[in-house]
Amino acid sequence: MKSPWAREIGAMVRKEFRTELRSKSASYTAFMLSAITVFTLAFAFYGRELPPDAASGMLWAALLFAGVGTLTRAFVAEEEQGTGDLLRMWAHPHAVYWGKALFAFLQMSATAGLVTLLFFMLAGVGVSNYAMLGLALLGGSAALAGMVTLVSALVSRGSNRGTLAGVVALPLLVPLVALGVTAGRSAITGLAQPAGWASCGGVWCYTLLVLAMAPYQLAAVWGEP
Amino acid sequence: MKWLALLGMSALIIASFQVPPALGFPEPELARIIFFHLPCAFSTVVFVLFAAYSSYRYLATREWIWEFRALAATEISLGTAVATMLSGILFSKVQWGAWWHWDPRQTSFLIVLILLGAYFAVRMSFEEEVSRARAAAVYSSLTLVPVLFLFFVFPRLPQVLKNSLHPSTTVQSGGFSQDYWTVVLGVFIMLLGTCIWIYKLHVRTSLLEQVLKDQDGQLETSGNRPTAYRVDRGVSLREPD
Amino acid sequence: MVGCEGLGKRYGRRWLFRHLDLAVAPGECLVVLGINGSGKSTLLKILAGVVPATEGRCDRGSDPRLTLGYAALDQPVYPVLTVAEHLELAAELRGCSPRVEELLAEVDLAYAAGVAGRHLSTGMRARLKFALAVQAEPPAILLDEPSAGLDEKGRHIVGRIIESRRARTAFVLATNDPEERRFATHEIALG
Fold first, then answer.
1. What residues are paired with C142 via a beta bridge?
2. Contact B115/A178, CB-based, under 8 Å?
3. Structure confidence by residue, pLDDT tens digits, B225-238
4. Which phi and psi (to 5°) does residue B25 adopt?
């Protein structure tokens, strides 16, 4: 027998998938935004070799902007089309959060894969430690999904939602980016491996912290009357 | 009390020019801006942490007093953070030769300033007061972890510390004399006292505004002019025809 | 039962209503009357839990997802989900039986089970919202201008939904329609 939580979260994830598969415009726009972000950042080094030291910073900047640009739709779209009230009446806020965050994680993982592939192709930089980079990117995707989903709920009922989401999310994600850049730099250059692994661990700690706090914050700002 | 504070501050300002300069700075005399810079930084930390606590209390109790306290504390912390940043920029120019050095402490403090600024962006985006209060409270409590990280962890990371120009070594190796510390702490106490006074005024003002809103149009009458808005709209419970 | 104690709602400095105490028990139907802008819809939204009150508290039962049904004229539906999918989603989230065929038959929407939300007419959307409101057979149902935009058939469906459940359900209706006032056991007027 399915637990109520699994049922509710599963229903949310299925709804998100259905909505995305049928409208497609959001996924396509997300893909284009990610590609344009990578290209624009890589273009900053047009005609020159990108120093391996700088590559990690550029990659995480691309992930950050792609993530914030695409994932804030989670709750903003619900409020824009007026269906937020339906979810408020039907579902527990925690189940809504986990369903949307899980879907956002899948979306962000795909985005991160695409962004990373494109970036290394355009930048022409090699990777020394794939395991470290992979773990950092996976943890980073989860943290981005968790935090941006929450931020999306926070700004969804305000005005200037698109701009406000960036203003709110970007500073909150700075610790993640700082840790991710350090891990990425170590993974690309192969230097300072202990610091790289420590930063990788830091990324996952940040992720766990976000995922532990976010459902309760969401209930306070979005779910409760 | 205010006269006493004024006298105390005057004495500290005089003392700040009298105490022997600290060692270990390229321009020791011009390092006296630390008497202002450090207390502002300490006050920012105090009020940011109190704002996060007040936000948490608002979410837990939904009492408006905690929302007013959070708002007041955040406004004051923004003010002291700006003062810290400006004095730090001046210090950077004088001691290190450039307005901005990407020093880890400078950079992490700038991010804290951005986090504080975003709090007001959140508040301005909500017309409805309950939604505004909740969004602001959630945001403020969300910023606690990044703020703690940026204040206390990031500048002390080994890979970051080695690139820092901030005079932590000067402080830790006893470059500040006892008199220097006395002035720093004295200014901090005075500044904290002033900030607490402003904070209390701010909270009291917010409470009065709340009372005004509760009174609604009743206070807008003057002479025989009607109120702008009706107070309690009549509700009748009657049996159907 | 559904009710409130000391309920008040303010926008800026303007109070829509204040010091409102209500208690509607199963078998009762409270009709909320008032001119446009008097706060009827806002009152129902607060009771439904989708808009926060400025002061006071509401009683919505132990689990509002199952104890409260709400249908409003201006409530959108998911544009890409079909009628049947709306009912399935609501049932999964609420933890009740979807009863898709039964509900669609009651609101006469069986022919539109596979139609997406964006292709529904105003009347069809209204009937879907009634089906969603009664799906869990809640002890309290809030209806905001239920007959607005409906044809004769739609109005008949509204009447049938209310009559078939009124003995065991507390209804709160926000309306200006004289026809809907006939369901009232109590009335209040805002404004």
1. C70, C172
2. no
3. 444 344 444 454 44
4. -110, 145
**Are the C-beta atoms of C81 and C116 separated by less than 8 Å?**
yes
Picking from C53, C92, C116, the nearest residue to A11 by CB comes out as C92
Sole residue written with tokens 């829509």: C16
- For residues A169 and A64, is the Cβ–Cβ distance under 8 A? no
CA distance to partner chain C, nearest, from residue B50 (Å): 25
Interface test with B, best of A56, A154, A199, A205 (most B CBs within 10 A): A154
- Residue C11's nearest CA partner among C71, C59, C51, C56 is C51
For every residue of B119-147, DSSP letters joined together read HHHHHHT--SHHHHHHHHHHHHHHTHHHH
Q: Write down the ipTM of this complex.
A: 0.89
Of B128, B212, B233, which is closest to C17 when you measure between CB atoms?
A: B233
Q: What is the pLDDT of residues A34-77, one digit of tens each?
A: 888 888 887 777 777 778 778 888 899 889 988 898 888 899 99
**Element containing residue B231 per DSSP (H, E):** none
The per-residue pLDDT for B220 is 44
Report the alpha-carbon distance of residue B204 to residue A136 in Å, rounded: 48
Contact with chain A for residue B118, Cβ under 8 A: yes
Instruction: Decide: B56 and B68 in contact? Cβ < 8 Å.
Output: no
